[in-house]
Design brief:
mainly beta, 2 domains
Length: 198
């Protein structure tokens, strides 16, 4: 009987230590530090011959702690880079919202008659961004309302970073190098990028 009581105390004490290490709940202990628990000895009024009371001391290894700086928790996982206003035809404030590596950029804010779509970026740095895309352009013949959109494959470079009060750093120019044999497309174009009102 005495042996069973001692064994029960030992098992319950060990379970408490293990639960305390895993959950930080044993005797108000913490899961991040070292946990020492003493298992009470069984009280024996008349010990059996050869029986001993014992105190077991169990030390749990310290749990590893991980610390993260706030910058490592940033969603982008990289330093703040210049953006570009990609959809200036939207209603404010969306028309002034900047993006990094957007899928398209509207260049003619009034009628969306000029822009770049299907963008695939190969580099986006603090000073320039490069990629490829398809330029759409309204030929405005006989007028822009009745004109047709034409599409041209092109290499794209964003440059001239400007600081703005509303959106931080933004690219302000785009250079388009056309990659088409269409005679209607020039070899090179340079356009201002939309900027937020100051």
């Amino acid at each position: 009987m005495v042996g069973k009581a001692w064994l029960r105390a030992l098992i319950m004490g060990a379970a408490c230590v293990l639960a305390g290490v895993a959950l930080g709940a044993c005797n108000g202990g913490s899961a991040t530090g070292t946990k020492t628990a003493t298992i009470p000895a069984a009280k024996v009024t008349a010990p059996a011959p050869g029986a001993k009371t014992a105190t077991a001391k169990v030390t749990a290894p310290p749990s590893p702690t991980t610390t993260m700086s706030e910058s490592s928790l940033a969603p982008s996982g990289r330093p703040q880079l210049p953006g570009v206003i990609s959809d200036c035809t939207a209603a404010p404030p969306l028309a002034e919202r900047s993006a990094v590596e957007p899928a398209s950029i509207t260049l003619a804010c009034a009628d969306n008659g000029l822009g770049i779509g299907d963008l695939a970026w190969s580099a986006w740095t603090a000073t320039a961004a490069t990629g490829t895309g398809r330029v759409w352009a309204n030929d405005c013949a006989p007028n822009c309302a009745e004109g047709k959109l034409h599409h041209y494959a092109a290499a794209i470079t964003l440059s001239r970073v400007q600081d703005t009060t509303k959106d931080g750093s933004l690219f302000s120019r785009v250079t388009v190098t056309y990659q088409t044999a269409d005679p209607a497309a020039p070899a090179l174009d340079d356009f201002p990028l939309p900027m937020p009102p100051e």
